[in-house]
Amino acid sequence: MSYTEATLQLLSPEGTLVETDATAPYLERIAGLSEQQLRDFHRQMVVIRRFDIEAGNLQRQGQLALWIPSLGQEAAQVGSGYAARAQDHLFPAYREHAVGRIRGLDPMRIIEMLRGLSHGGWDPAQTGNFHLFTLVIGSQSLHATGYAMGMTLDGSTNTGNPETDAAVVAYFGDGATSQGDVNEAYVFAASYRAPILFFLQNNHWAISVPVERQSRTPLYLRPAGFGIPSTQIDGNDVLASYAVSAQYLDDARSGKGPRFIEALTYRMGAHTTSDDPTKYRENEDVQFWSQRDPITRFETFLRARGEGDAFFADVASEAEDLAADVRARTLALGDVPSGDMFANVYSDPHPLLDEQRAWLEAYEASFEEEQA
After folding, report:
1. Measured distance CA(351)–CA(164) in Å, rounded
2. Nearest residue to 173 via CA among 79, 291, 271, 315
3. How does DSSP classify residue 306?
4. Which positions ≥6 away from 175 have C-beta within 8 Å?
5. What is the set of active-site residues?
6. Average pLDDT over residues 180-185
7. Average pLDDT, stretch 347-365?
8. Model pTM greater than 0.85?
9. Which pLDDT value is given to residue 315?
10. What is the C-alpha to C-alpha distance for residues 27 and 102, in angstroms, rounded to an integer?
11. pLDDT in tens, 285-300
12. Following DSSP, what letter does each residue of 56-121 receive, concatenated?
């Protein structure tokens, strides 16, 4: 599946602006971006891709139990991530590494989770309102909708003050659209006019099931049945991702109710490192999408605007520095202390946990005695 007639594209695969009646309102938003903001788009895409590749290498070398690649989906994430305001709350699935970094999440928190050292329990108040990775497919859509409904009840949205009015973004993939949770989220969001943007990254594969087998109709058409306005965008176009997300978040904050974006992109890597995509994907599809790489496209755009080699070299250097830092910090992590499994189970001491902790300590000590 490639683009459709409905796909909104602001930046062509050749890196030039698409100027039509349909794109004109969004190009006005792009015109308001500073040179530094445009540079930040590129920087985040390049740096997070290098992090992603390094994390995959670490998994292959036995340092992580699993890795979840985001290669190819950088533009959808970076554009929407920068469209959100500081007061907005973002609910990811498990592939939104770029969004997390934009909001202030240390990428090592993701590494720790996939090494088995934590359950990913970061505090959203310390990560720019970026909530926890959710491995249960689609459940975050209900969490996000409930949070958005709470914003309405609390009066923290639709007050007319753009500096404080807040909204929610719920990220999920095409496979999640087949889950009941996601469709229930649409019902509640529409019924309560919740200030939420549903952001679907259609990367064409729910593990090994192609999107055309999941849905006989384009996914952006589904929300209409729930009364939710939607747009299908080129998910490899960071400008389209930013502009449409910004518009829809403004709508949500101003009391117009939920909005929906289907970002057409492609998962260039495996679903996770336990998957082998060569078993079910055609090389022609991979080649089609590799020719529409979001980073290459945006670099062409920036160079045409006069950006020089020094900037791109600086970005590449930052990416390598992050990769080296992540590798060094990962190798220094060690194993999780076994006693951590007993922490935070109960708020007060509990005799059963005390008994289990004592048993485990004695059991582990027995191995040291045998070695001695």
Report:
1. 47
2. 271
3. T
4. 137, 205, 206, 207, 209, 214
5. 267, 271, 280
6. 98
7. 92
8. yes
9. 98
10. 23
11. 999 999 999 999 999 9
12. HHHHHTTS-S-----TT-HHHHHHHHHHS-TT-EEE--S--HHHHHHTT--THHHHHHHHTS----
